[in-house]
Amino acid sequence: MKFDEAYSGNVFIGSSPHYEECKVVIYGMPMDWTVSYRPGSRFGPKRIREASLGLEEYSPYLDRELEEVCFFDAGDLPLPFGNPQRSIEMIEDYIDTLLKDNKFPLGMGGEHLVSWPVIKAMAKKYPNLVVIHMDAHTDLRTEYEGETLSHATPIRKVAEHIGPKNVYSFGIRSGMKEEFEWAKQNGMQIAKFDVLDPLKEVLPSLSGRPVYVTIDIDVLDPAHAPGTGTVDGGGITTKELLAAIHEIARSNVNVVGGDLVEVAPSYDHSEQTVNTASKLIREMMLGWVK
């Protein structure tokens, strides 16, 4: 269950070498085959791992340490360059295997299309699945310039698969008018601009339900995360995103998996984005895995 050939050997700080013993499996999905603006997110998982080596293993927010959560870093899936269809098939097959082994999957992207096959696999095990989506963009298009497999389409695919009323988007500040209208007409909840306050309102209604959380790093303002493919001004702060992760941790929802996507390291020479991403991954693990 480890893809040694797919990356240089770095693992996320605190990772256990024992797959069988661990509840959590973190893995990379190094794909940016369909991006429409700036490529480079396929290098995100590797750089997040490298940045984690400078990260403290203790979370003062949650008063927990990484040693309290047994997690295994499986490396990056060896996705075929330029082949989105085969790539998403491989991702879904891999998640099927993790779920069969009763693991908690925590993915690192890669463009946002990689979340679609993960959630599709999750819905097979959890028929009552809810998706919490934090992003700058709606991602509700049916196609982008004629291509249905696009980073602009994953949430539309998810909504049509599990039902729009089971998808909750937060922090949205960009999208076509038709996307917002489709969401409204079909009962999908979109919270524009903000994350924390609308999330607090929603979480009590999701108590006890299985929840998958997908976070696009561009939900953050470019001042906080410039290293991403499609930057969009007017976003939230890192402090607000951390507070949202912790709010989910304190709630009664049953988080069954998650991902962090669209980290494109080459656009941030300060390495602020990958360092923030590694901290977010730490907080997701410590907060959501009981």
Question: What's the SSE blueprint?
Answer:
Elements: E1 24-29, H1 44-52, E2 58-59, E3 64-65, E4 71-76, H2 84-100, E5 104-109, H3 115-125, E6 130-134, H4 154-162, E7 167-172, H5 177-185, E8 189-192, H6 196-202, E9 210-216, H7 238-250, E10 254-261, H8 272-288
Parallel strand pairs: 1-4, 1-5, 5-10, 6-7, 6-9, 7-8, 9-10
Antiparallel strand pairs: 2-3
Helix pairs in contact: 1-8, 2-3, 3-4, 7-8
Name a few traits of the molecule:
Arginase, Chain A, eight-stranded parallel beta sheet, 32% helix, single chain, two-stranded antiparallel sheet, 290 residues, alpha/beta
Tell me, briefly, the overall form. Answer: globular
Number of strands: 10
Number of helices: 8
CATH superfamily: Ureohydrolase domain
Distance, first to last CA: 23 Å
Question: What do the pLDDT scores average to?
Answer: 96
CATH architecture: 3-Layer(aba) Sandwich
* Strand composition percent: 15-25%
CATH class: Alpha Beta
Low-confidence stretches: 4-8
